[in-house]
């Protein structure tokens, strides 16, 4: 679609202004009013299943013509089961507690002023994502429940599906007190529109990009609006000298193999030299049986002959695949040094039975989730008890780690006085 | 000083890398170790009073040569009293609770995992500020106490003073376990160095600009690092139909007159039409006696003849001076509408005896501080009980309102397990 720059600027501005107006109407709504919209959205998604699958077909055909891989086709695909899952996702969000207007703390000042912090929505959130069309419904639900208007810009490969889902969600809004423009799906495919949106500091409060590192870096580079980002997850498990090796085997296997394609899967295994000879040969054999390719440090390769040696690059690579780098370390200091140098501040876990070591690891490692005797795969909003997540932040500003409904709010100070003035 | 771009890039990188190393050494230090450095800094500032005043003379002479106004000269000036106040500021920060490693919440998951959120430092903070050299000590203290390394870039008009203060602070660090590079004062005056610093996303976690709107907008425009910003404070007091007019007079006078040059001073007074005739003439007379220039809406000008009429521009102007815009409104809806349209999300206060109105105002107005029956002047970290403040954020990401020590931290998830893996 050929669109002049001027038109794109105007379209972005229109989206931003409408979102800001909607955000003001949405903010004061009660949880009941927002939940009514969410449940109606779920109902309508189910009722319009056939329409959604039909629109999705257009995306699939187009992707096939463009020679998309079967993995990409699977990510784009909507079938009745997936529509059902989206509807269930909306109902799950409706069941979560509403964070808006919660007073998180309150105290009294010597002059009698009562001061508190009350959660309020951020305002307008822009989500820029790729492939999976279910993000359209999931992200809209989390933003709506936290009182934020959302502008959704999905990947062009799922354009028809996203438009169709957006239309159904907006139709539901129209029958409730939630303004329709609380959920806007960008209609123009031209990527230059995204660049225009990223300039609208006055109308959009936060940008959340979801997708590959390239997408996220491009968004950060051109945005005037704060961006919450997650470049990659190079997660580590450190098996301490005092580990239960049976537990270590269970955790290390789960962290790598249970779902290797996600950001909280382990990419590098660090093993204390005192247990390496006892632990690694059996562990690596188990990995190899499960199809995991091992890339070892010098010591690892000595313990288990025939392994591919790890290169310097391996230590900072997010494989997202059945590949694992393994390094033997002298002690916990070396393990933490390795994590600081090569890690991505995502998730690290220590396996140990030593009280002192567990405390030191938790205190010293400053990743978004630091675990003792648990699989890295638990760094997930649902698993940690946030109810749902809109993404994982590996930058420390505003939110660090999985972001649930609370992370889509901020707090304002509320002050109750009896006529106090400053001296 | 003529410096090539390549040199500036290298110097910025050097500062960033050193800060990141220092941040890692600083993060694990105990409160006692950090306090020792703060108290030693205070001692040394007092001991080197003469040196500081001498260096400050160079700045003052240079400023005089450049024809600086007496207001600017006053802002730059250091005298023994001001050095003493800086030292006291450091002792006050030492007396505050250390936020680092506080576990703010902890809960248990159905699978037995114990999950919590632990405060950690942000890492490296860049502060870009103007004029007052005391910011060098104040900001360094807050960053140090919250476990963050800081890169300080003050205005060139206080260059010698800032260098001198920085040297004293670093000398104190050298005698403690706090790394010297936890406090770095930029030595190169060339403004292009700031632009280079703002690109160092990998080494600096947060930028806090302190100064005029132009400075802040310039920083936001060129920064790849998250910026916490505060453009301006157009603060309102709304005198409700049910206000105690005696209390309203006290609060309105204080909010405008007690210190008009600061961001939490009132700039626009909104008065319900039901009490305007009774309230405004006496109030305005009192203002005029105090030298306040009034710019009124049509109704205000009718009630008090001879006033200057307010222009459309007045409603969104931060005077920072003894000037006040006054508008009569039909009701609270109109008052809130005015605040949403012209306000800056900084501070708004309602004066009322009506329970329902007080609740509605607090719920509906989403400024960084929303008050009932109190002067807007209380929107200040010290007054609200945060202990101290490094600035006030009017953007909602990360922090909204005054930022104390807690706002210079983030939280990581900590997870204690017994071998849990994901199904």
Question: How would you characterize this protein structure?
Answer:
The structure is a homodimer of 423-residue chains. Chain A is an alpha/beta fold and 423 residues long. Chain A has 2 domains: 5-229 and 402-414, Aldehyde Dehydrogenase, Chain A, domain 1 (3-Layer(aba) Sandwich), CATH 3.40.605.10; 235-379, Aldehyde Dehydrogenase, Chain A, domain 2 (3-Layer(aba) Sandwich), CATH 3.40.309. Chain A has helices at residues 5-26, 31-47, 49-65, 70-76, 80-95, 134-145, 159-174, 192-197, 213-222, 245-257, 273-289, 298-303, 332-342, 355-364, 381-384, and strands at residues 103-108, 114-121, 124-129, 149-153, 183-185, 206-210, 235-239, 266-272, 293-296, 308-309, 323-329, 347-351, 369-374, 391-393, 401-403, 409-420. In chain A, the strands form 4 sheets. In chain A, strands 10-9-11-8-7-12-13 form a 7-stranded parallel beta sheet, sandwiched between helices. In chain A, strand 7 (235-239), helix 10 and strand 8 (266-272) form a beta-alpha-beta unit. In chain A, helix 2 packs antiparallel against helix 5 (80-95), helix 3 packs antiparallel against helix 7 (159-174) and helix 5 runs parallel beside helix 6 (134-145). The termini of chain A are far apart. Chains A and B meet through strand 2, helix 10, helix 14, strand 13 and strand 16 of A and strand 2, helix 10, helix 14, strand 13 and strand 16 of B.
